[in-house]
Amino acid sequence: MGSYRHRMLTLKVYITGLLLLTGISIKAQISSELDTIEIKEVIITHKKVPADLIGFKSIAIDSSVTGNFSHETLADLLAQSSDISVKSYGVGGSATPSFRGTSASQTQLQWNNISINNPMLGQADLSLIPVGLIDKIDIYYGGSSMPAGNGGIGGTINLQTKPVWNNNTTITLNPGAGSFGHYSGVVKVRTGSLSFQSVTKAYMQYAENNFSFLNDVSSAEPVWEIRRNNQTFQKGLLQELYYRKLKNVLSARLWYQSADRNLPASILIQQPDGNEKQLDESLRTIINYDGFKGLTEYFIAGSFSVSKLDYSNKLASIDSRNLSEMLILKAGLVNNIGQYVRTKITIDNENTLVKSENYEDNRTGRNVVSVTALAEVNGSGRFGATFLFREIINNNSILLPDYSTGLQMQIAAGREYYLKANYSRNSKLPSMNDLYWAPGGNPSLMNESANMFEIIYEMKEQIYSPLYLNFDIALYHNTIKNMIQWLPGNYAYWMAENVKSVNTSGLESELSFSYTHNKISSILKLSYTYTRATTKDSEITNDESIGKQLIYVPENQANAALRFNYSGFYSNWISSFTGRRYTTLDNTSYLPAYFINSLSVGYGINHKDNLYNLSLTADNIFSTGYEAIAYYPQPGRSFSLKLLIQFIK
User: Fold this and answer.
1) Of 40, 309, 330, 386, whose CB is crowded by the most CB atoms within 10 A?
2) Which CA distances in Å does 398 have to 146, 160, 328, 370?
3) Integer angstrom CA distances of residue 512 from 79, 180, 467
């Protein structure tokens, strides 16, 4: 883990520097376009359906939410503020998403439309993504992910960073501290003009994560214990440069991220401190040009990223060192044909190189090219349709095409009542580990594929001014073929095989009321998700999972949030329910359901043209004991205090 004293000294100097900087006097004028925490309300906003998504479901999480979670990870935000299921090994441990009963590898994580999934694992660890570096998050469900790229059978999460075009220099300082030895800080500096912008963001976090938990499995009598070997140290830097001429924009982004973690074992295992460690380090770059010429839009993007994952386990004599490089070239052309038709063609080339001691030749590469053609028809505003066709070439092999179509109808003219339906075929390539891990990788694996159907109803109604109602409900059914699973082989190791077909179906619904009058604003949001994910058939003899719920996929999830604001004072109450999750294939063992409540209160003021905001958050107020993964306990009640100071020059 490195020197504890050195890291704590570094962190204390960092936090002290933040606090000292707040004394700088800069004349300022607060702008409504600032990148900061919104004081008025914190909600997930359902934006008007953007282009390329007619007939599909997607949501946008804006800066009001990301600001409230600025010191947390993407895993924390999605677990509390979305219907995505997050499987977490606990505070500081890895966390992976699951859309609609699909696996983590069937979810795509993107940064400004460029995939950042780990090419070895084929998935992303959400605990490594600090929300404080992100401006906006778009979530695409099922077939709506297809315009964004390959492989998002469950869905795609796109993290956006973007400029604010003005002549100001904005400095935001956001230190914080909390329970279990948690210290963190975020610094943002935006500066530039109407034609050039520079954005710098830095993030640092240290946590002991030495919380108490009740161990009722490793001894005859339950006993309170302290979670050990659970320290984490994360840091990140994001630099963005933007230049525009007329509507054309040239941008360059660089994101460095590092996480050094001690990994606690299952509470069933007794191991010495410092036994298991993991270092994740990445450097990502994107250069992008967006151009306009008449009615034609076009973009060219190039991305190069390097990711290192080093894992050590002293007791098992494991010292695994892995390095992956990914070069992505992407280009697109958008044309408007007449008043109602819009077409888009995208070419994407992804070249991956992995250097790992666990691959036979210690050096394995893959090149994937995809061509996507999309047409959007918007007939007079009442009716719309989307048609998509994709061809993928994997190492010179042409694959079976993917396709998607979506239909949308405005039920009543002048009213925001919409009925949508879509059908898609989407496929996913095996990960590099699935293909080449030694031993057990299988270069003969077939691609996973899914046939997906969805029907959606959305409405927005003004009950009376100033009370508004939003409601939506989505029903879906997916059939996933050639699911990849690692199974015991004929030798003393496991092997990757295409063994299963899986059906996932369910319901997602959300109801919200919003009220704004004078200095008072409030929002009540209620959501419920039902997910049925079962094995349809299997190549395994006497497979006990046939007809059973997939492990760690909750059938029932619900969330409730009540937000209130009066003048500068605000409060947020969030309740989340996660139902029973089975831990064995035959569904004989399970983790019980749990109900978590969190409350945050704060006050923000403008004083001498500066913005000051102080907030206090209590997570898991009733100190509920629960596990997201068996034998990896989550913390009980915890508190955090955050200060935000922002000024403009």
Assistant:
1) 386
2) 18, 32, 19, 10
3) 19, 35, 11
Name the burial class of residue 565, with classes exposed (0-12), middle (13-18) and buried (19+) by CB atoms within 10 angstroms of its CB: buried
Question: Side-chain half-sphere of 614: how many Cα atoms within 13 Å?
Answer: 1
Contact 130/203 with Cβ under 8 angstroms? yes
* Residue 248 CA: distances (Å) to CA of 165, 196, 243, 299, 487: 13, 12, 8, 10, 52
Joined together, the tokens standing for residue 567 give 């003048």
- Residues sharing a CB contact under 8 Å with residue 594, sequence separation 6 or more, in sequence order: 577, 578, 624, 626
Q: Using alpha carbons, list the distances in angstroms from residue 378 to 53, 169, 344, 382.
A: 11, 41, 14, 8
Alpha-carbon torsion (400, 441, 146, 118), positive or negative: negative
Question: Which CA distances in Å does 239 have to 111, 116, 218, 595?
Answer: 14, 17, 48, 39
Please enumerate in sequence order all residues whose Cβ is within 8 A of that of 547, keeping only pairs 6 or more positions apart, or say none.
534, 535
- In the chain, what is the greatest distance between 2 CA atoms, to the nearest angstrom? 75
In CATH terms, is domain 4-648 a member of 3.90.76.10? no
Residue in the block written with tokens 């394995």: 364
Round to whole Å and give the CA distance between 640 and 582: 32
Distance CA 185, CA 203 (A): 6
- DSSP single-letter state for residue 49: P
> 410 forms bridges with which residues in the sheet?
418
- How far, in Å, CA of 612 to CA of 618, rounded? 20
Q: Indicate the pLDDT class of residue 11, thresholds 50, 70 and 90.
A: very low
Phi then psi for 417, rounded to 5 degrees? -115, 120
The pTM of the full predicted model, rounded to 2 decimals, is 0.90
The mean pLDDT value for 198-220 works out to 92
**Could you give the angle at the alpha carbon of 478 between the alpha carbons of 476 and 481, nearest 5°?**
175
Query: pLDDT tens-digit profile of 471-517?
Result: 999 999 999 999 998 877 666 678 888 988 999 999 999 999 999 98
Taking CB atoms within 8 Å and a gap of at least 24, the contacts of 497-500 are 497/442, 497/445, 497/539, 498/445, 498/446, 498/448, 498/539, 499/538, 499/539, 499/540, 500/535, 500/536, 500/537, 500/538, 500/539, 500/540, 500/543, 500/545
Residue 609 tokens, joined: 């043209």
Asked if 261 contacts 85 with a C-beta cutoff of 8 angstroms, the reply is no
- Residue 101 has φ and ψ, to the nearest 5°, of 80, 5
Closest-CA residue to 646 (of 96, 5, 35): 35
For residues 461 and 63, the model is more confident at: 461
Please give the Cα distance from 154 to 80 (Å, whole number).
Answer: 19
